[in-house]
Amino acid sequence: MHLPLSDSRRAAGKREVLRLAKDRNVRFVRLSFVDVLGVAKNVSIPATELEAALDGKVTFDGGSIDGFVRGEELDMVLRPDPSTFALYPWSTPELPEARLLCDIAMPDGSPFEGCPRTTLKRAIEEAKASLEGIAVALEVEFYLFEALDSEYGSTKTADVGSYFDFSANDRGEDARSAIVAALQTMGVAVASSHHEHGPGQHEIDFPHSDPLAAADALVTLRSIAKHVAAARGLEATFMPKPIEDRAGSGLHVNFRVSAEQQPETLYMIGGLLAHAPALTAVCNSTVNSYKRLVNAWDAPIYTVWSERSANALVRVPRPSTSLRTGSPSELEMRSPDAAGNPYLSLAVLLGALADGVAQHLLPGDPLVGSTYDLAERERHERGIGTLPKSLRQAITELDNDPVVRAALGDHIYHAFRDAKLAEYERYRRAVHPWEHRAYLRLY
Fold it and tell me: Model-level pTM?
């Protein structure tokens, strides 16, 4: 379990990392972190510099990283977390390579407010009183496509499987198994994996852990999946909607509530629903994300919860305790996708859960049936809202939600907002193939 490291625990962790690196003859170590957009970055050092790195003596130019740019913050310090030390499974006896996940600090050693991992740590600490003992499990969906020589990748697949299918000659099955094995080699626990609805689509599930460990696991999966797939002539993508008429890839976030907190689970659901429009900006942070959030393939589109509906925004999974006989022990947020920043997504979700408890926000009655069957009049009468239909709408909702903004912190909020508005503007100005098909010869 990830916990804030005291000086004594950090020193003990440092000694253990140095011992492991020596015992396994590690030659290089990648100091890994993510930028505000969730894109993985790393600095590779020879093992001879590992002790210096663990002492916070490795720096990099933060002015070149999205979201880190401020004139007085160009020199950033990498602060490795010793508990994340792991050997890459593709290491060879001749060239063993390890990795450490890092927080970002200022040159004086103080935490950098633009570090996503530190932001999640702060959110965990701030929510501790109302969310004590909360654990997070993740269901991560992604596609494996044929690796073709093209500028932007390929959506071609020879796979014809669907939900839970198994084929003995499916390269995707072999690749997914290899990804799971690689994760386990690196100390990342995996609960299960299976084929998903779309041809070439897969899911890997992580068991409940503390929120920081869950985010670290997802960051690790995204890196490992791409490496393992490439070695098998495939490309792994966590793009939310790579194919128009196929299922999109989501990230279902399951929260397990401690026994002491279960009486307040309804308030937690209320918090997620109340802040859902603003949460969407962070948890569905690409232009493409909103092509998944449509009334198809059980994607959520309304701010409603249910005990059974697969397309509700928040679901109380069975066999979680029924609300008619007691308080639920689990709840699942179904709108996020894995293309965003895992640290920021979990930070804002925790902020919404905690605010629901603090404000005693009730979610109303659970929905029975499919949300897609809801008439507009019924939605209005029940106060059921609609999720944003575009990244631009979601950013507007974020602007108007002080709770979600506070969970991000002022620096990340502005850096994230500026980057996403620029992304949306590039998309708005682009001329797409659909427009050529619809208008070029018609007008």
Answer: 0.93
